[in-house]
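EI: anyone free to look at a 97-residue chain?
SC: sure, send it
EI:
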Amino acid sequence: MFNLFCEKDGSFLYKEKADTLSICKLKNYKLSSLEKVEILESKWRKNNKKAMIKKFGKIYPWYNKNGIFDTYLIEIINDKQFVIYPVEWRGLDDIAN
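SC: here you go
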C-alpha cells in the first residue's frame, strides 16, 4: 500500500493487486497527464449532465474521478517489463460546482 502525493489534484492511493506485464502490453493503456485528465473530466461532466439529470433528477449524485475513470500508475522497471498499479484518487471530497 502506498499513498503518492501530487502537488496538483491531491494524491493517489494504491491498495493491492499490482501486476507486472511485458512492455509490449503498454500499448493497451492510454497514458494521460494530470492536465489531460482534468480536460477529460470536464468533458465527461458536460457530455453526461443531461443523462444524469434525466436518471436522477436535478440533484444527482456527485461523481468524482474515481466514478469516472479507472486509474492506474505505471512504472517501467526495465526495457522488457512494467508494473501497473490500480489506484484511487484521494482528496476528492469537494462539492460539485
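EI: Residues 1 and 16 are 7 Å apart (CA to CA).
SC: 👍
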